[in-house]
């Protein structure tokens, strides 16, 4: 072809003729025309008009025959000859090939739309600055995806229940992220949640799932909106993941919305890797990047249908990492934001809570509580605790993570309200002198008084704060920074200033008569 000669856009005129002709004859071909193509997909203007006419009549429920179609065509286009329709009827293709005709029509229409988008992109690159040109190019590609002709009028999928019932179907069991006893916690082809407060090892345990998957010969994808590639490399190094396995771990930093270019890149990688596990860290930032409100059920469900569910449809276990509400009393069983998050989980939703804080130098434990298990294959104990994660730093700078059966997990560590301890310690440290017990309660008014009292007692027992009695009042001052890795000084006094737990009534620190201290709110580790 000589330079400068206009190129004919891609088209499939023969397929257009064959499909419209077959649709004029048979209802199955008509259904394919309406659901698998759009009138705008047709290259020939006449074909575009007639396909639109057939679509309109189909949508009104009209029982079509050739006379109804011709009469409606004459009403709409009185100047056009009826022979246009009869000629198409004479060139009808086979109904059994209708899907093939529709695919050819749709494919060439997609190519024409892409050519148009590319032409517009070139024009934008010449006339706009870089940022606006890039934004315009993304909009054009997104338009191709949203307006690409393919339509489905019914999302219902019939199932042959008789065959399913009579066929011996294996139980659906989780296969990803296993405890030391072999019980797994994540299902292939389903969505899951890790929801927790900050610094609760959500990402560490998710990466531990990657470690297990890679070690067993599988592959994984990690979409990260929280950490940096350097931070992730440090975690991988700490967990001692074999560098030879990293070619089966695809790690992506996501800086903006999950649009057409991002989905295309990811789906190509999925085709290459066939991942067993896909992690999104975190959902809150993924929604915010697209301008969506996590408190709006419609926003969240739309994101789930567009992003999370298609990833699960690949057969991978999809693990979504998210936050919980700050107030435990208002938290309920679901993640922060809309309750639709919990309702949309097709696998298991776990709430992670720190039992014992951990750091680079000190081992800690985290419990995984089941808030929802749709398939029911995670065999949880009383209290719905699925596992106890133990995170242990080693002298060589590595970190080991083990998931244990909660019924077999033993520890001498009592329950500790670590979050409240940090809050109380901070309030006392921010005071130059002493704080009265009543003042600490007022500063922590959003926390249950019993939990505040327990936190104070632990801080005294551990030597972080000192107490002084004056009449019927007790005052506290900071003696060692809470969270400092160096050991605190030996405490001078422990829990003696709190009422003892006796079945008889006694006076509290304010002189009021009340029942014994109620410690039912404590969450013991044994029996969990």
SSE blueprint and pairings:
Blueprint: H1 13-23, H2 27-36, H3 45-59, H4 66-76, H5 83-90, H6 98-127, H7 130-146, H8 161-166, E1 176-178, E2 184-186, E3 191-196, H9 202-215, E4 220-224, H10 229-238, E5 249-253, H11 260-273, E6 277-281, H12 283-289, H13 297-313, E7 317-323, H14 340-343, E8 348-356, E9 364-373, E10 385-393, E11 399-404, H15 418-429, E12 435-436, H16 437-443, H17 449-462, E13 465-470, E14 473-478, E15 506-507, E16 513-514
Parallel strand pairs: 3-7, 3-8, 4-5, 4-6, 6-7
Antiparallel strand pairs: 1-2, 8-9, 9-10, 10-11, 12-14, 13-14, 15-16
Helix pairs in contact: 1-2, 1-3, 1-5, 1-6, 2-3, 2-6, 6-7, 15-17
Question: Care to give the gist of this entry?
Answer:
The chain has 528 residues and is of the alpha/beta class. The protein is built from 17 helices and 16 strands. Helix 2 (27-36) runs parallel beside helix 6 and helix 15 crosses helix 17.
General description of the model:
The protein has 528 residues and is an alpha/beta fold. 39% of the residues lie in helices and 16% in strands. The N and C termini lie far apart (77 Å). It folds into three domains: 13-146, DNAb Helicase, Chain A, CATH 1.10.860; 176-404, Rossmann fold; 418-514, Winged helix-like DNA-binding domain superfamily/Winged helix DNA-binding domain (Arc Repressor Mutant, subunit A). Strand 4 (220-224), helix 10 and strand 5 form a beta-alpha-beta unit. The chain is built from 17 helices and 16 strands. It has helices at 13-23, 27-36, 45-59, 66-76, 83-90, 98-127, 130-146, 161-166, 202-215, 229-238, 260-273, 283-289, 297-313, 340-343, 418-429, 437-443, 449-462; strands at residues 176-178, 184-186, 191-196, 220-224, 249-253, 277-281, 317-323, 348-356, 364-373, 385-393, 399-404, 435-436, 465-470, 473-478, 506-507, 513-514. The strands form four sheets. It has a nine-stranded mixed sheet, with helices on both faces. A three-stranded antiparallel sheet has the order 12-14-13. A two-stranded antiparallel ribbon has the order 1-2.
């Amino acid at each position: 072809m000589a330079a400068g000669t206009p190129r004919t856009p891609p088209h499939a005129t023969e397929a257009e003729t064959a499909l419209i002709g077959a649709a004029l004859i048979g209802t199955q071909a008509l259904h394919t025309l309406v659901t698998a193509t759009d009138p705008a997909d047709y290259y020939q203007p006449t074909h575009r008009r007639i396909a639109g006419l057939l679509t309109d009549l189909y949508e009104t429920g009209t029982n079509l025959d050739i006379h109804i179609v011709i009469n409606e065509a004459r009403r709409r286009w009185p100047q056009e000859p009826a022979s246009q329709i009869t000629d198409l009827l004479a060139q009808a293709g086979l109904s059994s090939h209708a899907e093939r005709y529709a695919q050819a029509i749709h494919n060439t229409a997609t190519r024409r739309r892409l050519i148009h988008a590319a032409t517009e992109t070139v024009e934008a690159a010449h006339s706009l600055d870089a940022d606006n040109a890039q934004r315009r190019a993304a909009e054009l590609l997104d338009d191709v995806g949203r307006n690409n002709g393919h339509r489905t009028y019914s999302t219902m999928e019939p199932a042959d229940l008789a065959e399913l019932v009579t066929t011996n179907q294996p139980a659906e069991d989780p296969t990803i992220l296993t405890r030391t006893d072999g019980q797994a916690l994540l299902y292939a082809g389903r969505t899951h949640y890790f929801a927790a407060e900050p610094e609760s090892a959500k990402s560490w345990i998710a990466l531990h799932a990657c470690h297990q998957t890679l070690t067993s010969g599988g592959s994984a994808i990690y979409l990260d909106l929280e950490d940096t590639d350097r931070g992730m490399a440090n975690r991988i190094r700490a967990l001692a993941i074999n560098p030879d396995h990293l070619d089966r771990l695809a790690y992506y930093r996501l800086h903006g919305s999950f649009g057409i270019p991002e989905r295309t890149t990811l789906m190509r990688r999925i085709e290459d890797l066939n991942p067993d596990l896909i992690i999104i860290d975190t959902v809150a930032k993924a929604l915010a990047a697209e301008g969506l409100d996590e408190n709006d059920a419609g926003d969240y469900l739309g994101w789930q249908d567009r992003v999370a569910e298609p990833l699960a449809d690949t057969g991978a276990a999809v693990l979504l990492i998210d936050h919980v509400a700050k107030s435990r009393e208002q938290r309920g069983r679901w993640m922060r934001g809309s309750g639709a998050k919990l309702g949309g989980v097709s696998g298991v939703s776990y709430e992670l809570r720190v039992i014992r804080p951990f750091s680079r130098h000190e081992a800690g434990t985290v419990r995984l509580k089941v808030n929802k298990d749709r398939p029911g294959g995670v065999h949880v104990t009383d209290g719905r605790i699925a596992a106890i994660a133990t995170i242990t730093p080693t002298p060589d700078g590595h970190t080991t993570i083990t998931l244990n059966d909660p019924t077999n997990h033993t520890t001498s560590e009592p329950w500790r309200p670590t979050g409240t301890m940090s809050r109380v310690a901070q309030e006392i440290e921010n005071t130059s002198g002493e704080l009265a017990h009543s003042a600490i309660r007022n500063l922590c008014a959003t926390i249950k008084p019993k939990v505040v009292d327990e936190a104070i007692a632990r801080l005294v027992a551990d030597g972080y704060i000192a107490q002084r009695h004056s009449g019927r009042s007790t005052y506290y001052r900071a003696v060692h920074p809470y969270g400092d890795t160096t050991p605190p000084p030996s405490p001078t006094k422990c829990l003696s200033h709190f009422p003892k737990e006796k079945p008889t009534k006694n006076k509290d620190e304010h002189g009021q008569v009340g029942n014994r201290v109620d410690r039912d709110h404590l969450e013991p580790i044994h029996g969990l």
